[in-house]
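Hey, I was hoping to borrow your eyes for a little while. A protein chain has come my way and I'm curious about its shape. Take your time with it, there's no hurry, and the full record follows here:
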Amino acid sequence: MKVLLDTLIVLWAAGQPEKLTESARTVLTTPENSLFFSAASIWEIVIKRGLGREDFKVDPRGLRKMLILHGYNEVPVTAEHALTLEALPLLHKDPFDRLLLAQARTEGMVLLTCDAAVSQYQESVLTV
């Protein structure tokens, strides 16, 4: 399975694995799964870190480097991803989460999330 991690899952997997649920850990450690992170997550971290958010204090450059070194694949943001947003109903207003879902759908992935609002979309979402 191709799995795109939402931003919180990325942060927890990288620095606070104790926050991950058992089902999230299973998805992340199943060898048959291909794990992906989005450039949009790095962008979100940069913005929220710049705003002084306590839960986004991680160094985004170091995080990206570590993810790649540990075998995660980066998904760039493309115009096709942005166009997929048009088809998404407005069930959730967070632009980063909506873009991650659009990427997952466009790329044939599932979005791994712990966000109940994102889970409303159901298709292409795996809630842990």
Summary: The domain at 7-127 is CATH 3.40.50.1010 (Rossmann fold). The beta strands are 2-5, 34-38, 73-75, 110-113, 125-127. The chain has seven helices and five strands.
